[in-house]
Each structure stands twice: as C-alpha cells, then as structure tokens.
C-alpha cells in the first residue's frame, strides 16, 4: 500500500478502500483454489475477472476519484487484478495437467490385449507373380488358356511326341490316377496329374483355328521330393504361338520382351541347345542375372549368390513347335509354324525375391507372404 497521502481520503469511494480491494482479491484467490475442475474454474473466472466482477467495478470507480488520488487507487487495484490473473493462470495450468493425466489413464489402450479381428488376407505371391507374367502377354494380344490338372496321358505325352517308352512316363516321375486300360483295343489313354502345362498346347490347337496365341498359367505335379529347389506341386507358365511364318527370331524377341517387362529394359535372354520331344529345335532359355546383370562373371569382388557368378539364370525350356505336334492336332505344318516356351514360377519367385528355400512358399506361414505386400 502506498504511503499515506494527506490530501487523499481513501474512504471517498467505498469500493476502493484498501481493505475492500484486499477482500476482493482474497475472495478471487480462494474461489480459484476451491475450483475442483476446469468448469468450476471457468465460473470463478467469470465471477472474479469478468466485466461485472467486484474488481472490474472497482477499477471503473477510479475515474470518479479526485486526480491526486487516482494513481494510488489505480496501483492498488492493478496489483490486486495482477495477483488474481496470475493465480487464475496457475490454477488453470494445474487443472489442465490433472485433466490430461486423468484422460491418459481413462482412455489408455492396452496394445498387448489379444486382437479379435480377422486379419485382411492377400493372394499368395506365386499367384500374383503368375498374373504379372500372364499380363505381359495379354497386353500383347495373347489369350489366357486353361486345361485340366487331372489330364489324359494322351495330351500330356502322346500328342506332344513323347514315345511310349519315354522315361518321363514312368511312375517315378508322374503321378498316375490310373494307367491305360489293359487289353483295351481302342488304346484308351491313361489318366495322370499333368506334369507340365504343355498339354494345353495340344488342347488349344484342337480347339482353335490358327493363328493361335495363348498363354497358360497353371499348377503341375511331379513325383519330386520337397526340398530347397523342388516341390511335387508347382506352377508353370506356358506360351504358344502358331501362325504363318513364325521363326526362332520371333521366339527370341518374345522372350526378350518378357524379361524386359518383368525385370527392366536392359534385360536379355540367351538360348542353349536342348531337347524336348514337342519342340524342334529346342532350347534351354536363360536370362541375364537379375541381380548382378552379368557383372559378377570373372569378378570375385562382385560375387553374386543369385546366379553363382555365372551371369545367367536358367528360366525354362522353349523351341519351335515340332511339326509332329501340329499334325497330331490337325494343323498343316506346311502352312503354319509356331514357337512355345514354358518355365517354373517358383524358381522365378526364388531368384526375383532372393527366396532361398522353396519350402517356404508351400508351408502357408504368413511371415513368408507378408513382406510381399497385401496385394489382392
Ligand atoms: C517343361 O516342363 C517343358 N514343358 C517346358 C517347355 C514348354 C519346353 C514349351 C518347350 C516348349 P522342364 O521339365 O524343364 O520343362 O520344366 C520347366 C521348368 O519347371 C523348370 O525350368 C523349372 O523352373 C520348373 N520345375 C521343374 N521341376 C520343378 C519342381 N519339382 N519344382 C519346382 N519347379 C520345377
């Protein structure tokens, strides 16, 4: 409080008496302290700092004081109002902190609780890989063709120029559903699980008139043991083109286009002589190593695990359709020629995504499929 001023009568205005102002201040401070939550504090704030609060009204009275008394009264009211707004801010911060702490507890989520929602599924990477390859050919105008997995021996072998004593027909390579009926004068075909997608070549040629451009993704079966690089049930993609004037150059161009679409514009393929009964000439097709692009060859500093530093990866088999197959399917080999190729999707997935063990693809563990994304 200021020093007594003889020419000033503090009793001139009741509301500005020093003890009155102290009372107003103390009441405000007590109301703030008593407010138990932010709502009550808001009410106390309106009552003690609002336009009609005692201190605001007292402030207005200052104007009515004689000039010599204004400064002293103004100082007292100002100090009281300052103390009130400081106490209000402090209590506000206190109550907000309490509220935040309470909300954190009340709205806490236990992320370790067992989760009862069914996780969204996704297609297997083998399926999406197969579709991706098929799409390359669909965009070139090829048609998707299908054939049965339980297949007539005739389509799987005879129509494709496999001789009756070909080793692939043996029980150790092929799952037989039942063999040819013995003593059957019509020589009725046995029934097997198809060992490759090539029987769809014969089915497509019997179904359609050339020109024929088909791509066939599908599941095939062999009596191979399940190991890191083999499975008894796997997937192949078959391609067949039969038209007038097709040559090995068309085959090579198509293969290059496929690997460039799937692996990048600098990709290329190479052909190595091979033998398949249903193509002549036949070749093994390799593509430039997807990882080292051939740079690991003769370069121990850049050794490549994907291609064992050979620079090339084996993709599958291919060749010009054997005229005997065309004849067996009623197509004139004098007029038409064709090319075909087929390869394994599991092997492609292995080297494209560095999968070291093929068994991971068939065990159905989502920890394997999840990194491929939830593509549907
Ligand atoms: C064939 O199956 C021929 N039908 C391919 C063909 C089509 C040649 C058209 C000419 C014209 P092959 O037996 O090599 O060929 O098998 C092709 C691919 O299937 C192999 O390169 C390999 O990638 C895959 N494959 C073969 N056996 C298995 C297996 N047990 N597990 C996983 N993939 C396999």
From TrEMBL:
<dbReference type="Pfam" id="PF02912">
    <property type="entry name" value="Phe_tRNA-synt_N"/>
</dbReference>
<dbReference type="InterPro" id="IPR004188">
    <property type="entry name" value="Phe-tRNA_ligase_II_N"/>
</dbReference>
<dbReference type="GO" id="GO:0005524">
    <property type="term" value="F:ATP binding"/>
</dbReference>
<dbReference type="InterPro" id="IPR045864">
    <property type="entry name" value="aa-tRNA-synth_II/BPL/LPL"/>
</dbReference>
<dbReference type="GO" id="GO:0005737">
    <property type="term" value="C:cytoplasm"/>
</dbReference>
<dbReference type="InterPro" id="IPR006195">
    <property type="entry name" value="aa-tRNA-synth_II"/>
</dbReference>
<feature type="binding site">
    <location>
        <position position="280"/>
    </location>
    <ligand>
        <name>Mg(2+)</name>
    </ligand>
</feature>
<keyword id="KW-0030">Aminoacyl-tRNA synthetase</keyword>
<keyword id="KW-0479">Metal-binding</keyword>
<keyword id="KW-0067">ATP-binding</keyword>
<dbReference type="GO" id="GO:0000049">
    <property type="term" value="F:tRNA binding"/>
</dbReference>
<dbReference type="Pfam" id="PF01409">
    <property type="entry name" value="tRNA-synt_2d"/>
</dbReference>
<keyword id="KW-0963">Cytoplasm</keyword>
<keyword id="KW-0547">Nucleotide-binding</keyword>
<dbReference type="InterPro" id="IPR004529">
    <property type="entry name" value="Phe-tRNA-synth_IIc_asu"/>
</dbReference>
<dbReference type="GO" id="GO:0000287">
    <property type="term" value="F:magnesium ion binding"/>
</dbReference>
<keyword id="KW-0648">Protein biosynthesis</keyword>
<dbReference type="InterPro" id="IPR022911">
    <property type="entry name" value="Phe_tRNA_ligase_alpha1_bac"/>
</dbReference>
<dbReference type="InterPro" id="IPR002319">
    <property type="entry name" value="Phenylalanyl-tRNA_Synthase"/>
</dbReference>
<keyword id="KW-0436">Ligase</keyword>
<keyword id="KW-0460">Magnesium</keyword>
<feature type="domain" description="Aminoacyl-transfer RNA synthetases class-II family profile">
    <location>
        <begin position="127"/>
        <end position="371"/>
    </location>
</feature>
<dbReference type="InterPro" id="IPR010978">
    <property type="entry name" value="tRNA-bd_arm"/>
</dbReference>
<comment type="subunit">
    <text>Tetramer of two alpha and two beta subunits.</text>
</comment>
<dbReference type="GO" id="GO:0006432">
    <property type="term" value="P:phenylalanyl-tRNA aminoacylation"/>
</dbReference>
<comment type="similarity">
    <text>Belongs to the class-II aminoacyl-tRNA synthetase family. Phe-tRNA synthetase alpha subunit type 1 subfamily.</text>
</comment>
<dbReference type="GO" id="GO:0004826">
    <property type="term" value="F:phenylalanine-tRNA ligase activity"/>
</dbReference>
<protein>
    <recommendedName>
        <fullName>Phenylalanine--tRNA ligase alpha subunit</fullName>
        <ecNumber>6.1.1.20</ecNumber>
    </recommendedName>
</protein>
């Amino acid at each position: 409080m200021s020093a007594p001023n003889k020419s000033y009568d503090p009793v001139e205005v009741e509301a500005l008496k020093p003890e009155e102002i102290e009372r107003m201040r103390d009441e405000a401070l007590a109301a703030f302290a008593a407010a138990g939550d932010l709502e009550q504090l808001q009410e106390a704030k309106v009552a003690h700092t609002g336009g009609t609060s005692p201190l605001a009204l007292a402030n207005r009275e200052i104007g009515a004081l004689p000039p010599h008394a204004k400064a002293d009264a103004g100082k007292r009211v100002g100090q009281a109002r300052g103390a009130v707004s400081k106490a209000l801010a402090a209590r506000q911060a206190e109550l907000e902190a309490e509220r935040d702490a309470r909300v954190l507890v009340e709205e806490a989520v236990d992320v370790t609780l067992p989760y009862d929602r069914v996780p969204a599924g996704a297609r297997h990477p083998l399926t999406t890989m197969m579709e991706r390859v098929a799409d390359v050919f669909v965009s070139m105008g090829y048609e998707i063709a299908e054939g049965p997995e339980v297949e007539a021996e005739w389509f799987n072998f005879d129509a494709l120029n496999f001789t009756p004593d070909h080793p692939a027909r043996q029980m150790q390579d092929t799952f037989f559903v039942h063999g040819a009926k013995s003593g059957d004068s019509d020589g009725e075909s046995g029934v097997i699980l198809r060992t490759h997608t090539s029987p769809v070549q014969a089915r497509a040629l019997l179904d359609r008139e050339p020109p024929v451009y088909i791509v066939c993704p599908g599941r095939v079966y062999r009596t191979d043991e399940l190991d890191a690089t083999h499975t008894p049930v796997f997937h192949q993609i078959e391609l067949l083109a039969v038209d007038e004037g097709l040559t090995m150059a068309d085959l090579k161009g198509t293969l290059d286009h496929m690997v460039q679409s799937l692996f990048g514009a600098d990709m290329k393929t190479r052909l190595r002589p091979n033998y398949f009964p249903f193509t002549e000439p036949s070749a093994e097709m390799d593509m430039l190593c997807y990882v080292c692009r051939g740079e690991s060859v003769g370069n121990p500093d850049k050794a490549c695990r994907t291609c064992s530093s050979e620079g090339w990866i084996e993709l599958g088999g291919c060749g010009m359709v054997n005229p005997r197959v065309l004849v067996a399917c009623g197509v004139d080999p004098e007029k038409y020629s064709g090319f075909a190729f087929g390869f394994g999707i599991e092997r492609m997935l292995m080297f494209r995504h560095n999968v070291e063990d093929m068994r991971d693809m068939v065990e159905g563990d989502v920890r394997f499929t999840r990194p491929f994304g939830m593509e549907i």
